[in-house]
Amino acid sequence: MSNSLQALSAHLTGALASKLLKAEIALNELTVEIAPQDLIEVSTFLRDDEACSFEQLTDVCGVDYLSYGDSEWDVGGSGFTRGVKREFSFDDSELDADKPEFEGKRFAVVSHLLSVKNNQRIRVKTFCDDNEFPLIDSVTEIWSSANWFEREAFDLFGIMFNGHPDLRRILTDYGFSGHPFRKDFPLIGQVEMRYDEEQERVVYEPVSIESRTLVPRIIREDGRFTRDAENEANNTNEVEK
Amino acid sequence: MPEIRNFTLNFGPAHPAAHGVLRLVLEMDGEVIQRADPHVGLLHRGTEKLAESKPYNQSIGYMDRLDYVSMMCNEHGYVLALEKMLGIEAPIRAQYIRTMFDEITRILNHLLWIGAHGLDVGAMTMFLYAFREREDLMDVYEAVSGARLHATYYRPGGVYRDIPDVMPLHEKSKWHSDADIKRLNDNRGGSVLDFIEDFTNRFPKCVDEYETLLTDNRIWKQRLVDIGIVSPERALQLGLTGAMLRGSGVEWDLRKKQPYAMYDQLDFDIPVGTNGDSYDRYLVRMEEFRQSNKIIKQCVDWLRANPGPVMHDDHKITPPKREDMKGDMEALIHHFKLATEGYCLPEGEAYAAIEHPKGEFGCYVVSDGANKPYRLKVRAPGFAHMSAMDELTKGHMLADVVTVIGTMDIVFGEVDR
């Protein structure tokens, strides 16, 4: 498997050249990163090229990198600290006033492709240029299965797909506002719903529960994995441009 | 002459043939469907977002609740993704146990499918027959995990515990007479493996029974043959996997093509259809019953002959034994850290897919090195199948929608997540 991935990676590097921002093999999986403007062209190539033949789009998934690498508990220093101390507020700007503004690209669209013919997989990653209005081309013309997966990414992350035939919400409720899987959307949600006997209808109200953290999010340097990573680095075929 | 125009029909969300909470908005021309617009998400619980707020092990139980008729297979997909990131592998005995339970789960899932599909199309008896056998398999679930449905049995590094030596017996109650109890406990005298073996011996007969009821049944064929035809090219394009893809004649099964667990050691065949219609998909799944049965048999034989550990011994990831914790400081600390904090995955991302009874079930995990996933994406086969609804039903009659829902084997727990 690994050899064929190396070969595929080399083939893609040769054929796509500068369009390939990054090609990396980790854990026996090939990940390529491409710029949003090249998405359609590269996708068509991946589907139609003989050595690629990725006939099936297995999955499209949005990722929000807003709080990537944030730890709720500082374990670097000495002594013990409280795990999580956080007040809840609907207005995130109040809480994050002292937090530095997020830099870099926030939203990524990750697609997994499968080639039944060559029995191989590839992961295609694209970062949206604009954090405020993440826009990317739709691949529904290339793979029909993208239709609902892209609707899902739009619904949950607010990523816009240019050229999508029917970009409606799919999983959330009718009339829902906001994009719930964004990292700045509270886990407990923003509204709760109940049946009001006086008004004789269902009413929406701001949530009355408090958000709690049961286990703090901790990032630990684990010696075992850094060792593994060093070994793997020798096998990785990186083509940083 | 009056103006003739299409009208819109609302199907579900509480229709008995909608298999849960499917709302279909159908644009009809008379009785012919012009466009089907499924409204899903009525069962959306935000599983993936919830998983982001919990240590890895606490989300295993959520996986059961995705496709709630093939519980352990969902766990398998999740657990494999974690193991891939952690760089560990379960002991061989655990792998065999997983393989066996994956196949038990496949039979469980297909039994519910054939029962519900039959019921939708008019074969009432199928439902009763299928639930008779499901009961035995759910007892096996209960014997190993304590739960009939939501087992949380697979863990990163193995399975929660070895298969017990005793099969629980039915107890006397006011609903069962002594003679009943005796009959019910007839094949439960031995170990759980004995009970499973006994099941595999009688199950092929049961499948024959189902087939006599359905395979050549005139009504069944009238309702299924040539309904919802998908060509192999379109099946791939639409993201169909599992029996939906094999029914169209594409020989693709992850158990054979990208083997995981112990599938490369076992002898079984992959049934493939030719026409890509609902009837072929029915035949494919019926054959999968027999193949799964064959796999279970092989696993039982192996498990009998080869005792061994069922959990990885790296106690940074798997909990130490309870006895050890009583006397060993190290074990106590390991347990404390696992219970309060869990374990951290190395930074990176991984996608692990398994051949779920419904198709390809995959978990994509993104980790930033923390003890909780940064992002978990569940690739549910039903979601892709549901999106093909429009294409599969176009031009068919209203009654065929029910057949197509049945043949897709839809469960809303995984479509809506």
Structure description:
The complex is a heterodimer of chains A (241) and B (417). Chain A has 241 residues and is of the alpha/beta class. Chain A has a domain at 3-66 and 107-177: Beta Polymerase, domain 2 (2-Layer Sandwich), CATH 3.30.460. Chain A is built from five helices and nine strands. Chain B is mainly alpha-helical and 417 residues long. Chain B contains 18 helices and eight strands. In chain B, the strands form three sheets. Chain B has a three-stranded antiparallel beta sheet. A three-stranded antiparallel beta sheet of chain B has the order 6-7-8. In chain B, β6 and β7 form a beta hairpin. The longest helix of chain B is centred in the N-terminal third of the chain and has 30 residues, at 92-121. Chain B is globular and about 90 Å long. Chain B starts with 6 loop residues before the first strand and ends with a helix. At the A-B interface, β3, β4, α4 and α5 of A face α1, α9, β6, β7 and β8 of B.
What string, H for helix and E for strand, traces the elements of chain A in order? Answer: HEEHEHEEEHEEEH
CATH superfamily of one domain in chain A: NADH:ubiquinone oxidoreductase Nqo5 subunit
Order of helices and strands of chain B: EEEHHHHHEEHHHHHHHHHEEEHHHH
The global form of chain A is: globular
Mind telling me the CATH class of one domain in chain A? Alpha Beta
Distance between the termini of chain A: 26 Å
**What order do the strands of the largest sheet of chain B run in, or round the barrel if closed?**
1-2-3
Report on the biggest sheet of chain B: 3 strands, antiparallel
Largest sheet of chain A: 5 strands, mixed
Number of helices of chain B: 18
Proportion of beta-strand residues of chain A: 15-25%
**SSE-based structural type of chain B:** mainly alpha
Number of helices of chain A: 5
| Backbone structural class of chain A | alpha/beta
The CA-CA distance between the termini of chain B, in Å, is 49 Å
- Arithmetic mean pLDDT of chain A: 82
Oligomer: heterodimer
Form type of chain B: globular
Got a strand count of chain A?
Answer: 9
